[in-house]
TrEMBL record:
This is Signal transducer regulating beta-lactamase production, contains metallopeptidase domain. The keyword Flavoprotein does not apply. Residues 538-594 are annotated as: Disordered. Residues 11-266 form the Peptidase M56 domain. Keywords: Coiled coil, Membrane, Transmembrane, Transmembrane helix. PANTHER family: POSSIBLE SENSOR-TRANSDUCER PROTEIN BLAR, SLR0241 PROTEIN. The chain crosses the membrane at residues 6-28, 40-59, 94-112, 277-298. Residues 540-549, 558-567, 576-591 have a biased composition (Pro residues). Residues 455-517 form a coiled coil. The keyword Transmembrane helix applies.
Length: 689
C-alpha cells in the first residue's frame, strides 16, 4: 500500500509539472518557429521531457533535529467500524488498479494500431540501389519510416506512377532525415508517455502537435538542402495529403498534419546559422529552468540526523575546548576537563559522517617563556587511524588540526579540529553539565514516548481483533438466521448489531487509551526531574577508627571464690598453672566503600514542570550535629549494622536531603563517607564518636 501511494504521488507530481511545460511549449511554438525556424520550434518539446527527467533526481534533504517528546514511531491510526455502517474505504486502493487498467488498455490500443498498419503493407520488396528503402503492396499511409531496432523506409506501391523522379528523390530525402535524427524513437517515447498519462488530455494533444512540428522540421531541412525544389516538394505533399492509416511507432509523411500550413511554410526563408544557434541556446536555458522548477516542486526528503558525544576524563587541572567537524558538516563543541598527564577520550557517533575518536593527554609546557600546554593526540575515523599530532598550545590560544583533502567541489573531506586549552572555568563547566543533563532527558523522553506508542499499538491491535471476532460472529448469526423464523431472525440480527456495537466501543476505548497514554508520556517527560551532581573528593590518610580493647589490655575480672568443701572431703590438689598466652590483636575491619576524610560538593537542580530554581547557598555539615540539623536521619547501631556500615562511628542518612524535591546544595566534610552501589550519590555519613 505504501509503495502504491508513493507511485500515485509521483504520478500526480509528474502530471501537473509536465502539463505546465506542455502549455508553455504550445504558447511558444508558433512565435519561435517564425523567429528561429521550424527546427528550434521542434526542440521546444524537450521542455516537458526535462521536467520528467528532473523528477528522477534525488530530492533535496532537510535535516530534522531530534526533539524531546517527538514520537519514535508513527502515530497509531485506529479505525472504528460502527455496527450499522459500512467499513471505511481508502480511495487509494481504487486509483492504483484504475491507472494500471488504463495503461494496459492504452498499450493494447497502440499495439493494435501498429499491427494493423504493418499487416496492411502486404509483402515488401527492396528497391534497387536503396539499402534502407522498401516498396509495399499497398499505398495507405505511405511513405513512412517503420521500426525501431531496424527502421526501414516504406514506399507506396504506386510510387513510380504517382510521383516523378524529382519528387521521389525529395520524398526519400525527407524520410532519410527521419532516420538520421532518430525520430522513430522520439515517437516511441511519445507513445510511452501517452500510456503513462492516458488520463491527461493535454498529453494526447501534445503528441499530435509534436509530430506536426517534427514534420515541419524535416521539411525545413529538405528545403535547406534543395532550395530550388520548393514547388516540386509542395506538389509531392499535396499528392499524399490524405493517408488512411496511422502508425504509432514510426514517422508518416503528412499524417494528421495541416497540409496548407506546411505548403505555406515552404515560402519562408531559412534562418541563418547564428539565428538558429541563438534559438537553440534559449531552448536549452528554458529546459534547465523548467527542470529546476520541477525539482524544486518535489517534496523534500526529511532526514533525522542524530549525533552522540561521549567524553571520558578525570581531574580538574585544565579545560580543553574542542570544535570538531567532519567532512565539512556541522561542528560538535566538546568540553574536556581533566588532569595533567592523565588520558582523556572524546568519541563522536554521527548518523551521517560516521564515528570519530580522539584520545590524548595534556601536560604543562612553556612557549617563549609563557605558560603553555603540550597535547599529544591520536585520531581515529571509523576505527582507522588518521593521525597522531603533537603540538604546544599557548594558554588561551587556539590551535587547529586539519587532516583530509579538498574535494573538487570545494568541500573539505576529512577531520577539522580546533582546540583551545586553559584553566578550568566554572561557568563553562556548569554549561557542560547542563548540556549533559539535557541529552539524558531527551533520551529518556524518547524511550518513554516509544513505550507509550507501542502500548497504544498493542491496544489498537487487540481492539481490531475483537472487532473481527464480532464480525465473524455476526456472519455466523446471519447464516443461522437463514433457516429461522422471522422472529428468530430479527432476534439474531439484533444480537449481531449489539456485538458489532460492542466491538466499536472497544475500538473507541482503545483509541482513547492510546491518546491518554501518549498524553501521560508527554506529561511524564515534562515533569521528569533533571539532576546535576558534581562530586569532588580528596582522600588524605584515613583516620583510624576507635579500636576495641585487646585481650591483653582488658581489665582482669575478680576471681570467683571456690565453692565450699563438704565436711570429710579432702582438698583436691591444684593443677599447675599454664603459661600466659601471648597478647593477640583483632583482625583489621573489612574495608568500606570510601574511607578517609572527604570533601564532597553536591549540587542538585530539580525541575517539576517549571523552570529550575536558583541553587541555594551551600550547607556545610562538618559535624554530626550539623548533619542532623541539615535534615539527616540518625541511624541506630542496629540499623548501621544491618546496612553493613562500620561500627565505631555515628552514622547519619542524608538521603532525605539529597533526594528532596527542592533545590539544594550541600558540602560535606566528614571522617568517612559511604556511597550507594551506583557510586554516585553519597548517602551515609559517619562521624568519629
Amino acid at each position: 500500500m505504501i509503495a502504491g501511494n508513493a507511485v500515485l504521488e509521483s504520478l500526480w507530481l509528474a502530471t501537473w509539472t509536465g502539463s505546465i511545460a506542455i502549455i508553455i511549449v504550445m504558447l511558444l511554438r508558433a512565435p519561435v518557429r517564425r523567429r528561429f525556424g521550424a527546427g528550434i520550434a521542434y526542440a521546444l518539446w524537450w521542455l516537458p521531457v526535462a521536467t520528467w527527467l528532473a523528477l528522477w533526481l534525488p530530492a533535496r534533504v532537510i535535516e530534522v533535529p531530534v526533539q524531546a517528546g517527538s514520537p519514535a514511531l508513527d502515530p497509531v491510526a485506529v479505525t472504528t467500524v460502527a455496527g450499522t455502517s459500512d467499513p471505511s474505504f481508502d480511495m487509494n486502493t481504487l486509483w492504483m488498479p484504475m491507472w494500471l487498467l488504463g495503461v494496459g488498455l492504452m498499450i493494447g490500443m497502440l499495439l493494435w494500431q501498429q499491427r494493423r498498419f504493418e499487416r496492411a503493407l502486404g509483402r515488401m520488396r527492396a528497391l534497387d540501389g536503396e539499402r534502407s528503402a522498401w516498396q509495399a503492396e499497398s499505398a495507405a499511409g505511405l511513405p513512412a519510416v517503420v521500426g525501431l531496432l531496424r527502421p526501414r523506409i516504406i514506399l507506396p506501391a504506386d510510387i513510380d506512377t504517382r510521383f516523378d523522379d524529382k519528387q521521389r528523390g525529395l520524398m526519400l530525402a525527407h524520410e532519410r532525415i527521419h532516420l538520421h535524427r532518430g525520430d522513430a524513437w522520439a515517437n516511441a517515447f511519445t507513445a510511452l508517455v501517452r500510456c503513462v498519462f492516458w488520463f491527461n488530455p493535454l498529453v494526447h494533444i501534445a503528441s499530435s502537435r509534436m509530430r506536426h512540428d517534427q514534420e515541419l522540421a524535416c521539411d525545413a531541412r529538405v528545403i535547406a538542402a534543395y532550395p530550388h525544389a520548393r514547388r516540386a516538394y509542395g506538389e509531392a505533399m499535396l499528392k499524399n495529403a490524405n493517408p488512411s492509416l496511422m502508425v504509432p511507432l514510426g514517422c508518416h509523411w503528412g499524417i494528421t498534419h495541416p497540409m496548407k500550413e506546411r505548403v505555406m511554410l515552404l515560402k519562408n526563408a531559412i534562418p541563418s546559422r547564428g539565428t538558429r544557434m541563438t534559438g537553440a541556446l534559449l531552448v536549452g536555458v528554458a529546459a534547465i529552468a523548467v527542470a529546476a522548477a520541477a525539482w524544486a516542486a518535489m517534496p523534500p526528503r526529511q532526514m533525522q540526523r542524530s549525533s552522540e558525544v561521549i567524553v571520558k576524563s578525570e581531574g580538574r587541572d585544565f579545560q580543553a575546548s574542542f570544535d570538531i567537524a567532519m567532512d565539512g558538516g556541522p561542528s560538535e563543541d566538546v568540553l574536556v576537563v581533566g588532569r595533567y598527564g592523565e588520558p582523556f577520550t572524546v568519541r563522536i557517533a554521527d548518523s551521517e559522517t560516521g564515528s570519530f575518536e580522539l584520545e590524548g593527554t595534556v601536560t604543562q609546557a612553556s612557549a617563549n617563556g609563557a605558560p603553555a600546554y603540550r597535547i599529544e593526540a591520536r585520531l581515529q575515523r571509523d576505527g582507522k587511524s588518521v593521525g597522531n599530532p603533537v603540538m604546544v598550545v599557548g594558554a588561551g590560544k587556539q590551535a587547529r588540526i586539519k587532516l583530509g583533502d579538498e574535494a573538487a567541489n570545494g568541500k573539505f573531506a576529512g577531520v577539522d579540529v580546533n582546540v583551545q586549552i586553559g584553566d578550568v572555568d566554572p561557568a563553562a563547566l556548569q554549561a557542560r553539565d547542563q548540556a549533559e543533563m539535557a541529552r539524558h532527558q531527551v533520551e529518556r523522553t524518547r524511550v518513554m514516548t516509544h513505550q507509550a506508542h507501542a502500548s497504544a499499538a498493542a491496544e489498537a491491535e487487540k481492539a481490531a481483533a475483537e472487532a473481527r471476532l464480532a464480525a465473524d460472529e455476526a456472519a455466523r448469526a446471519a447464516d443461522e438466521a437463514s433457516g429461522m423464523s422471522a422472529v428468530e431472525a430479527r432476534a439474531a440480527a439484533e444480537a449481531a448489531r449489539e456485538a458489532a456495537n460492542e466491538a466499536a466501543e472497544a475500538a473507541s476505548e482503545a483509541a482513547a487509551d492510546a491518546a491518554q497514554a501518549a498524553a501521560e508520556a508527554a506529561v511524564m517527560a515534562d515533569e521528569a526531574r533533571i539532576e546535576r551532581r558534581v562530586i569532588r573528593k580528596t582522600y588524605p590518610a584515613p583516620p583510624a577508627p576507635p579500636q576495641p580493647p585487646t585481650a591483653a589490655m582488658a581489665p582482669r575480672a575478680p576471681a570467683a571464690p571456690p565453692p565450699p568443701r563438704a565436711p570429710g572431703v579432702p582438698a583436691m590438689p591444684r593443677a599447675p598453672k599454664a603459661p600466659p598466652a601471648p597478647a593477640t590483636h583483632p583482625a583489621p575491619p573489612a574495608p568500606w566503600v570510601a574511607s578517609g576524610k572527604a570533601s564532597l560538593h553536591i549540587e542538585r537542580e530539580v525541575r517539576n514542570g517549571a523552570a529550575p530554581s536558583t541553587v541555594a547557598k551551600a550547607v556545610t555539615v562538618a559535624s554530626h550535629a550539623q548533619a542532623v540539623a541539615a535534615g539527616g536521619r540518625v541511624l541506630t547501631s542496629d540499623q548501621a549494622a544491618s546496612l553493613g556500615l562500620e561500627p565505631g562511628y555515628r552514622w547519619v542518612d542524608m538521603q532525605s536531603l539529597i533526594s528532596g524535591h527542592a533545590s539544594a546544595s550541600l558540602r560535606i566534610e566528614s571522617a568517612i563517607v559511604t556511597t550507594d552501589k551506583d557510586g554516585e550519590t553519597p548517602r551515609y555519613i559517619g562521624y568519629i564518636r
